[in-house]
């Protein structure tokens, strides 16, 4: 469905110097930041009318950003030539726009047709580029779409989920309720003296000379297709009951998706396939880091199976493989990673994070947003009615998100090579 989206205003919003918490400091980026994607991650949500005015949204944003000073800062270089964050209160970019359509009509058809017009197109090559950018698009019915783009080397999904909930709370309560995040990045960066890395992080999280990470080919972007699969709450409950042993929604749905995508790809039985699973390390470190820590603290787990075993194994068996791999990201592994970062403090490292057009086949990568409280994104008129996924330009990337529907369930958004799309649509 074609929709005319017109930008009406662009402005930088800066918290007052009195309210901003940054103090103009230059903050080193951590080894977790260095391992994350060097680029902007878009997220897009929709709310039915009545929705707060743009003025109320901007007032709440200003009050919230003052407590999240990294988002109003800029990337810079420290006195030693290393990349850092300058908490200079340079501001966040706010774009206001209108859409010539009714939101309900758009959501009932193909909202993806104009999704690219609903969030800012950040340019990471510009040193002055705002780290956080947001677009407020108002539809003819009064419905609202908020599209955000934030740089991943500043904050992970857990952090941005907390920020978004804080912004919603500020708008809903007229800034009477302003949660304060945990901002001490030093809590994630406590190396031993001397540092004693015991795992080969230079070939796992980073691209070393003889990296153990797979070498993936690159596809033209027009060959990568995005699919959305809805798993109703009843289906998820049946899936978990079929596993028998206690398991999470994430473990069950990943097992299901891993099996189905592998079958659709028609891989050789002797091939191996693995999933790059993003693991939140906050509660796994010793001592643990508060869950409201704002920054990056994610590492990857790698459940791996031979194709014939994956396709023939029971769901409980595959769940066990996933659980065991995630358990390997423990306090010992996290401490080793931090020590590696200290030992390589002055070395330029290249992350193994995915890049545009990468084809993970025969592998997958999954991010779970199932624990992100979408119901907390209530700006005063209720939680969002839809999560609108921007295009995922990487073959094999999957995102699991909670359904915004009243009956619950979950959505799987997956990007695949065109040659596998028809098969996955028929069996998932």
TrEMBL record:
The keyword Transferase applies. InterPro entries: CAT-like_dom_sf, Plant_Fungal_Acyltransferase. GO terms for molecular function: acyltransferase activity, transferring groups other than amino-acyl groups. The keyword Acyltransferase applies. It holds the Pfam family Transferase. Belongs to the plant acyltransferase family. PANTHER family: TRICHOTHECENE 3-O-ACETYLTRANSFERASE, TRYPTAMINE HYDROXYCINNAMOYLTRANSFERASE 1. This is Anthranilate N-benzoyltransferase protein 1.
